[in-house]
Design brief:
about 325 residues; Helicase, Ruva Protein, domain 3; 14 helices; alpha/beta; 5-stranded parallel beta sheet; about 45% helix; about 15% strand
Length: about 325
């Protein structure tokens, strides 16, 4: 069960959405040529989910995570995951203080509104597991005491392709906690030329003012729940899920949690468009990043094209 969200003041939904779009525009000026990926990332956070960015080193994964935090006004901490990282390095540790004759908890870097788990698959499974409770419950438990995390709370993790040296594949239980997996890919030649000619992206980030606030994000996350979903749209989501379970070629189909994630992402995508109802195109837009890391082929490899195949195979009711 998630920790309850703090109460936030009522706001103007149109104004809040305008702020989120302004944040997207600012990010687009730093992360060039990736407008769709940026919108997917912001949609993921708007839906209250965690984000996994997977790609080769050097394409802007870390810059993107830092940019999202700055554009949305979120407190930010970065943890570099390495093979010798310990869970206590992430969540914190209780230290005995002789003057007070008691143990006192010293919070780790996870106590931020947005934590960047950089190269998360370079850490051992034991260190990766430090994120599980935080991602699911929005709290961490140390020595039997639970400590709530800030709200809103997001994990943005980056990972290198599994075939690279020194990586540990994320287990299915960990992957399933990420609402979306997004890949940036190499920039187009025109965009890469602009990157080569332009200013260092990190310098641009340092000058980027926040376009939104955490309170804006919390209000819009509440508004996501109010976006209307018709019975016909539910039929479509169930048809997509059923296809993944019934057709040969997948080791296992999509779970009910995946179906809920797909629907919530579609609601957030619609809200970002300023609409109060979900249409099939919203579902199609978010299906690839929502299901791509949840479906494995009959072997053991993730099926990178599963989302596109689902959308192509299942007709709209």
């Amino acid at each position: 069960m998630h920790s309850p969200e703090p109460a936030v003041s009522a706001g103007d939904p149109a104004k809040d959405i305008a702020q989120l779009r302004a944040a997207l525009q600012m990010l687009d000026e730093v992360i060039l040529g990736k407008a769709r990926q940026l919108r997917l990332c912001v949609t993921c956070l708007l839906a209250g989910g965690h984000l996994l960015i997977e790609d080769v080193p050097g394409v802007g994964k870390t810059t993107l995570a830092h940019g999202i935090a700055r554009a949305l006004g979120l407190s930010f901490q970065r943890v570099q995951f390495t093979s010798d990282l310990l869970p206590a390095d992430v969540v914190g540790v209780s230290i005995f203080e002789a003057t007070a004759n008691t143990f006192r908890f010293h919070p780790g870097p996870i106590f931020a509104q947005l934590i960047l788990a950089d190269e998360v698959n370079r850490a051992t499974p034991k260190a990766q597991s430090a994120l599980l409770e935080a991602m699911e419950e929005r709290q961490v438990t140390v020595d039997g005491v639970s400590h709530p995390l800030p709200s809103p709370f997001f994990v943005v993790a980056t990972q290198n392709p599994e075939e690279q040296v020194g990586t540990f594949p994320l287990p299915e239980s960990q992957l399933d906690r990420f609402l979306m997996r997004v890949r940036l890919g190499y920039p187009e030649a025109r965009v890469e030329r602009e990157l080569l000619r332009g200013e260092d992206r990190r310098a641009l980030l340092q000058r980027m003012p926040p376009a939104a606030t955490p309170e804006t994000l919390l209000r819009l996350r509440t508004a996501v729940d109010r976006v209307h979903v018709s019975e016909a749209l539910l039929d479509y989501v169930q048809a997509l899920v059923a296809w993944s379970r019934e057709r040969p070629g997948f080791g296992a189909g999509l779970s009910p949690r995946a179906a809920i994630a797909l629907l919530r992402a579609a609601r957030a995508w619609a809200l970002l468009d300023g609409r109060n109802g979900v249409i099939p195109e919203d579902v199609q837009a978010v299906t690839p990043p929502v299901v791509g890391h949840r479906l494995r082929a009959d072997g053991d490899a993730l099926d990178a094209d599963a989302g596109e195949r689902l959308v192509a195979a299942v007709p709209i009711p």
